[in-house]
Amino acid sequence: MEKFHGFLLSFLVVLLLLLCLGETFAQPWKRDIISLYVSPSGDDSWSGRLSLPNPSKTDGPFATLERARDEIRKLKRENRLPKGGVIVEVCGGTYLLSRPLELKGEDSGKPGAPIIYQARKGESVRIVGGKEVKNWEEVNDPAILSRLPEKVRGKVWQANLKEMGITDFGSPQGGGLELFFNDRVMTLARYPNEGFIHIADVLGEGRFKYEGTRPDRWIDEKDGWLEGYWYWDWSDQRHKIKSIDAQNHIIEVEPPYHYYGYRKGQWFYGYNLLCEIDAPGEWYLDRERGILYFYPPSPVKRGRAFVSLIPNLVVMEDVSYVQFKGFTFEVARGDAIRIRRGEAVTISDSLLRNVFGWAVVVEGGKEHKVVNCEIYATGCGGIALDGGERNTLTPAKHLAENNHIHHYARWHRMYTPAISLNGVGNIARHNLIHHAPHQAFAFSGNDHIMEFNDIYMVCLESNDAGAIYAGRDWTWRGNIIRYNSFRDINGFQGRGCMGVYLDDMLCGTLVYGNIFRRVTRAAFIGGGRDNIVENNIFIDCEPAVAIDARAMGWASYHVDTTMKERLLQVPYKQPPWSERYPELVNILEDEPSAPKGNVVIRNICVGGRWMDIEDKARPYTRIEDNLIGVDPLFLNLKKGDFRLRPDSPALKMGFKPIPFEKIGRL
Fold it and tell me: What percent of the chain is helix, strand and coil (3-state, nearest 5)?
């Protein structure tokens, strides 16, 4: 028994020593990070070191992110910034910004010591760039009621924005005030509510006949506008209405006129029309009087309505090692978040929606990241990453990863993709992208990687477009498109578009290990050189691969103009260019118009049509070892399991298995 007591005593002593040592080691770690707090119940005169107000209400959290930023600046000036960095924890609630949160170089963290702004776990933190509208009244002005469709009279409400101090409304052409109700963007009153009216005939520049009689109602509208695809299916423009001749069904628009002109049969719709408030969710703003008219989709007094006021929510310049995590960013007249230069800024685990511009725009710098975010209802695209040095081919290594981007480009509908990669060496992987009028990806520059993305139902409002698109530059080389899934991409009214569109002589792109299902012109090489289409699976595509020689025909004028001009802008005859892209060194002496060096090898094509290739392109193209019209022995085609059985003839010809389990969001 005495031995047992002795052992127990020794054990307790050792345990006590370990606890003391643990506390000794833990304390320095705790002192290496400072936590600041922000809360709707806070006060910017307090210390920000408490997550809740104290009982005497003399100290507690800050009320604003700006105050937390300023406190970090103070710590840095006083040389009291801890070695482990700072965490700004933001408590649940809605934070209305009267101006963007601006961060400069002085607001940066360091490697291993970041500045982290994060929403409290499990709580909803909304960063909103507008004002809430509460002064709603039913419309009872007889003059206004007479202009509304009879079926909605008594259902439309109005609010005086000038009484709220709002006087800057912007233009209906874009970039002005927008209305959001119960977290959804509302529709600026339009006709038709979905779809388009067609041009019945073109009478001259900016003058055309319209089909039907509905535009007759717009004569008394003082600020009516049109948006249309006036000539090409991929080029839209907004016009202010100049006049309407109801007797002859003629509309004339204000200049500037559409660059490509106007064509019979093309389509447009009218908007910013008080008389067209006929569906729940539509609104109109009388900019002269400052009166907002709204047909709410649910009782307006029980919901929350916001109007956008400020251009951006967060603007960072020369900022490094800062993170924003777990927020909802919404309601702005421009881009939600802008990052210029700097290094290693991360936007993660956030929801970005209901802004007029892009969700996140990165200009310059290196290794910025947008990860694990959901993005939708943006007026433009999702994430724009631009960085890297082209003269030296130095990569920026910006990253867009594991994001869900959908229902975007609601205002600027063409050429505002879910993800844009520009410059050198940026990466987009494991993103889910769907439901958009135009592109999923656009890229320019060199050495970008687009991989493991899941893309479907894009290019819904355009033709002669591509889910992944780039074009008209010999020097944009080294780009990799691999292990992506494309499905149900067929263009507006099923007229056809492309999966991967290497347009106008684009060169040096690798299209490897992708799967295309029900895609029109799944992989398209538009007269370019040195492109490789390898190890892809095409199912029910029309066709799977298309190649032309346009620079030897209708597009030949680009060779001595745009193509040569862009070639001479880079040091293509000097290292590292001459070493990385030796095919460029003598391109001007090597039949520059010819689509040389393209390779189509070891692909699988099931159903649909295999290839459309222009006769002029065929002698320059290497096509071999493709499995066409032969059962590749998928594990289960009907259930969409496209893994290959061990005895697949595709494997015997050298086809490499595609890692399907890695495609899409993680």
Answer: 15, 35, 50
Segment 40-96, tens digit of pLDDT: 999 999 999 999 999 999 999 999 999 999 999 999 999 998 999 999 999 999 999
Question: Which residue do the tokens 């295309």 mark?
Answer: 516
Q: How far apart are CA 382 and CA 438, in angstroms?
A: 12
Q: Are 429 and 398 in contact (CB under 8 A)?
A: no
Q: What pLDDT, in 10s, does the model give residues 442-454?
A: 999 999 999 999 9
pTM for this prediction: 0.94
pLDDT digit string (tens) for 377-419? Answer: 999 999 999 999 999 999 999 999 999 999 999 999 999 999 9
CA distance 170 to 161: 13
Neighbours of 589 (CB within 10 A): 7
- C-alpha distances in Å from residue 497, one per residue of 472, 549, 610: 18, 18, 16
| 233 close to 495: Cβ distance less than 8 angstroms | yes
Q: Which of 166, 170, 167, 140 is nearest to 155 (CA)?
A: 140
Three state DSSP letters for 88-157: EEECCEEEECCCCEEECHHHCCECCECEEEEECCCCCEEEECEEEECCEEECCCHHHHHHCCHHHCCCCE
Query: Cα separations (Å) of 68 from 42, 46, 503?
Result: 11, 11, 48
Average pLDDT over residues 245-260: 97
Structure token digits, residue 251 = 């509309």
Measure the N-to-C terminal CA separation of the chain; round to a whole number of Å. 58
Domain residue extents for the chain: 31-128, 130-189+278-306, 191-271, 503-508+517-666
Rounded Cα distance, 570 and 440, in Å: 28
CATH architecture of 191-271: Beta Barrel (2.40)
